[in-house]
Amino acid sequence: MPDAPATLRHPRCPVCGTTRQQEEPFCLGCRFEFATGNPPRPPRPPQPPRLVPFRRRRWELHIEADRGYYDSLRQDPVFPTPPPPIHVAPLRAAVVVLGSRPSSRFRTQGVDLVKPPPDPGMSASHAQLDLQYDGRYLLHDLGSLNGIRLQPGHPRLGREESVWLRDGDQFFLGSWTRVTVRHSWDPPAPPSPEGSERPTRA
Predict the structure, then answer these.
(1) Which residues lie within the region annotated Disordered (predicted)?
(2) Any idea what DSSP says for residue 124?
(3) What is the DSSP-derived secondary structure letter of residue 180?
(4) How many whole angstroms separate alpha carbon 123 and alpha carbon 120?
(5) pTM over 0.70
(6) Domain architecture of the chain: domains with CATH
(7) Per-residue pLDDT tens for 139-180?
(8) CB–CB of 58/70 below 8 Å?
(9) What Cα–Cα distance (Å) separates residue 96 from each residue in 35, 145, 155, 191, 199?
(10) SS3 69
(11) How far is CA 186 from the centre of its chain?
């Protein structure tokens, strides 16, 4: 006749009363140690959420006259002498239209690329920048007469082509206009408490 199983020393947990399952060393309810009799460890206090400081990305266009691009076109307009100073245009909208007479509509920003002296090769609405989900801008032509070039002497950007822009990228349009894309980061803002309104990413 087989021997009867030995009676467990702690059929129930002396702390929470949970039934001990076979030879479990710990109580499944409160983690009481049956072998040593050590009381369960106190639960860890809840930790506050870790808030990451918010930083806003800023995009700018640095617009200037480029003699090398002008010479590559072999055209009639006279290059301005002296060249006009660099014009910096911050980007503040998700859709940005570049040209000689760009229109600023709802949610659209117009950037005038014709600063004195005016670039005669610039169309009224020459190019467009569209802000993408990852925070970068996408460049494409709006059917301009002279198109967009990524390098002097290179073929024009196709009407159906689009180009992702990164910090330091350049493109050329009109008779002598060079546009350089720059981005920087605002200083970190104090983190907002959980549930409060955060600023919208640009």
Answers:
(1) 182-202
(2) T
(3) E
(4) 8
(5) no
(6) 10-43 (no CATH), 57-185 (2.60.200.20)
(7) 999 988 889 999 888 888 887 789 999 999 999 999 999 999
(8) no
(9) 72, 19, 24, 30, 21
(10) helix
(11) 13
